[in-house]
Write a structure and sequence with these properties.
The structure is a homodimer of 290-residue chains.
Chain A: E1 10-12, H1 15-27, E2 32-37, H2 43-55, E3 58-63, H3 83-93, E4 97-99, H4 103-106, E5 113-117, H5 125-128, H6 132-147, E6 151-155, H7 159-171, E7 177-181, H8 201-222, H9 228-240, E8 245-253, E9 268-276, E10 279-287
Helix pairs in contact in A: 6-7, 8-9
Chain lengths: 290, 290
């Protein structure tokens, strides 16, 4: 591991300068590891950066709160932004380049091009956040074209997003290796998320029920439960036991197609999205076929 | 010009091999000029190749009849294919690499990602060929990612396609220069097109009316006509004078937005699509603001 402090982190906001910098790095034979984020960095992000440092000779971190992946009425304006703290974290951990593009330069007047992954963007969060994955797919492709990384790093917490990005890379013939890293959790199991900052003390306690539901899922699979609805019922019971949590969905599905399973037979994904007050939180767990 | 015969043209059908070859060319400091086509090469294509040879140190020509840009009921299966003749033309003119991917490798099972340019894909051919530009945008982006060219060459005959491709390059931050070249015409003005091969003798004679309609457009603009409908009426009169031509559309519109003009004031595009028998032909003409 090579997470020593780096006093030379360069901050770049211009798209042209970022691209030119990346071309120069490639011409010098550097391997570029890229960690795209929306900032409000937490240990989930830093685990990606640490891994990118291990795998590559140059690490680029982007922070961009992407307007096109928020649906109307969502938290685009209020999304946690703490750029000074993020800069300190990135610099301390040894990021080489911090890319901070503006929304105006990313989406200039006349912008009309979107990337859409069909099918796997429809269930789960796609159902509750129409257009979200189109925004994610588009911004990730733009960032890839600007940064031209050899490898890019994504957390498994956003499971459906990870599937979408892997699909884009394959379908559009991008020469980028997608590396996914395990969800980092708080002591009580809550998945790290920038949105956890929204939670008040009472909500934060309730939020731990999400992970307890995941534990029940794992336990029931281990005990050879084959009927998804029985598992969903148990997960629901745990969540509903807490005050003020509203379930968007709990799905027991195929980890590749995201289609609901009728019977469990092989690898299985449990995916959940809830609302606690105004905060929407997601989590997931894959149990691989033995 | 450097269109001497080239006995060293390399034919590549594997996507991985094409990409590796392009990476090698870039590493050697070569500039890659790319001409994507659907084959049945004619003088329109060769003008693009000649220009690519002038501008670059390596020229890649692709021939791929792209299934996703044909709408149901169109001529995907019957589209002119003459690969042996195309190879000879490409080799004679000095193409360095001929890329011939298969549809199975371009669109493997599970393919789900599409690129869509909004707005400018809706009028003109977009209205008559739903999904066509989504197919074009997707395949062009795939080919760009495989071939990683410095410059790519497109004919102005497919005006709306050219606009879509320029939009993709800008919106998705692709580091590729798009070079457009004037439509090449037969002696009687008919725009060169692979689909002209479909025309029988009688149809071929009728087809010349398309260019005569373009000439009327230019003449009326020159004579300061400001009312689009009057120009459309004259163009229609010329087309309808011929037996067996059916008009899909005649549009007098803004060359950037493709929106129909109510009054002519500045640059103007005339775009036309007709059907002669089973053959669909298009043409266009831009008169720039003086």
């Amino acid at each position: 591991m090579n997470s020593v402090a780096n006093n030379y982190m360069k901050i770049i906001s211009s798209i042209v300068e970022m691209h030119k910098t990346s071309l120069d790095l490639r011409n010098k034979g550097k391997n570029i590891g890229f960690v795209p984020t929306m900032g409000a960095l937490h240990k989930g992000h830093t685990s990606l950066i640490e891994r990118a440092k291990k795998d590559n000779t140059a690490v680029i971190l982007s922070i961009f709160v992407n307007p096109t992946q928020f649906t109307p009425g969502e938290d685009y304006r209020s999304y946690p932004r703490d750029i000074e703290k993020d800069k300190a974290i990135a610099s301390d951990i040894g990021v080489d380049y911090l890319f901070l593009p503006s929304a105006d330069e990313m989406y200039p007047e006349g912008f009309k091009t979107f990337v859409n992954v069909e099918d796997i963007t429809e269930p789960l969060c796609g159902k509750f956040r129409p257009g979200h994955f189109k925004g994610v797919a588009t911004v990730v492709l733009k960032l890839f074209n600007i940064v031209i990384p050899h490898r890019a790093y994504f957390g498994e917490k956003d499971y459906q997003q990870l599937l979408v990005i892997k699909r884009i890379v394959k379908d559009l013939n991008l020469d980028i290796e997608i590396v996914n890293m395990a969800t980092i959790r708080e002591d009580d199991g809550l998945a790290m998320s920038s949105r956890n900052r929204y939670l008040n003390q009472k909500e934060r306690l309730s939020a731990a029920a999400i992970y307890r539901a995941m534990e029940i899922f794992q336990e029931m699979i281990k005990n050879n439960e084959k009927i998804p609805q029985k598992i969903v019922n148990e997960m629901e019971r745990i969540i509903k036991n807490e005050d003020g949590i509203k379930i968007d969905y709990i799905s027991i599905c195929n980890p590749d197609t995201l289609k609901d399973l009728k019977v469990i037979n092989g690898s299985v994904l449990a995916a959940i999205a809830v609302r606690i007050g105004k905060t929407r939180l997601i989590d997931n767990c894959v149990v691989e076929e033995k």
